[in-house]
Amino acid sequence: MPVSSAPSLHSSRFDRITFCLVSPEGPGNIGSAARAMKNMGFTRLAFVSPTDPRGEESIRMAYRSREILDAARLFPDLSFALSEAQWVVGLSGRKQKGGEGESIEVLAPELWERAADQKITLLFGPEGTGLTNEILSRCHRTAYIPTGPTFSSLNLAQAVLLTASAILRASSASSSDANGTIRRRIAPVEENETLFQEMETMLEQVGFLKPEGNKIGAKKLRKILMRAEVDSEEVRLLRALFRKMMRTARAKER
Questions:
Q1: Residue 92 has pLDDT above 50, yes or no
Q2: Residue 154 lies in a domain
Q3: How far is the CA of 168 from the CAs of 42, 104, 113, 147, in angstroms?
Q4: Measuring CA to CA, how many Å separate 145 from each of 7, 105, 160, 198?
Q5: CA 249, CA 247: separation in Å to the nearest integer?
Q6: Residue 75 backbone phi and psi in degrees, to 5
């Protein structure tokens, strides 16, 4: 079915948005997702632990979109996949505690504006289980795709298509690059992960967390820091604070 051509305006923003499929289950879905991306003007595709991403079925379903499959980046785990990302959105149909998560239709305009100067990664989970809570905790935002009330299940390619379409519509409604919102540069995900690891170590050191217990408190603090969207200088300040607290705690134990 013919569709309107994606605009060439803001092409650099399209290049800063990566669609990352985490453990996709079917080669056909992988190929269909690549085709859906091309329909909407996107080219950056990545996989975490995929099944046959460039096999015969994937290529067949990626009709006239094989170049996206060929250029897709393959990662052994999520940490590698997010190492260059600055802002991460997890797509999930699962109800989050505390009412977290917003419609991709609502989030798309902000996502598009951030793409003016930030590398953005959109995470999509496997159809059977979706993204785990652990993965969602590593996202700055969680989004869902609005559906009818009686049947909300979408396959992977549909989710990619609807997400890409929402962002494309937001790009059409956006002002030009010159009039776009300038945002401060938040810390890359890799820096945040180092910060969170040191935070957990410090919390265990001062007795706030038990090494063998659950880490609900740490997960909540992680979410607070993710929402705060700290920059690299703030990450360095917090890491220095955590190290000072650990040294103080060790000194008191002597």
A1: yes
A2: yes
A3: 9, 12, 12, 19
A4: 23, 8, 10, 35
A5: 5
A6: -125, 145
Give the C-alpha separation, 40 to 165, whole Å. Answer: 6
Summarize pLDDT for 119-151 with one digit per residue, the tens.
Answer: 999 999 998 889 999 899 899 999 999 998 888
Q: Round the CA-based radius of gyration of the chain to a whole number and report it.
A: 20
Q: Whole domain around residue 63: which residue ranges? A: 11-179
Using CA of residue 109, residue 186, residue 125, residue 99, what is the dihedral sign?
negative
199 and 156 within one domain: no
Query: What is the rounded CA–CA span in Å between residue 242 and residue 201?
Result: 9
> Mapping DSSP to helix (H, G, I), strand (E, B) and coil, where does residue 198 land?
helix
Position 99 scores a pLDDT of 52
Same domain for 200 and 170, yes or no, is: no
Q: What is the DSSP string of 117-132?
A: TS-EEEEE--TTT-S-
Helix, strand, coil percentages (3-state) for the chain, rounded to 5, are 50, 10, 40
Does one domain contain both 201 and 248?
yes
Same domain, 57 and 106: yes
Q: Is the pTM of this model over 0.85?
A: no
In a domain, 5, yes or no: no
- Residue 51 in any domain: the answer is yes
Give me the CATH number covering residue 56. 3.40.1280.10
**Cα-Cα-Cα-Cα dihedral sign, residues 211, 215, 220, 223:** positive
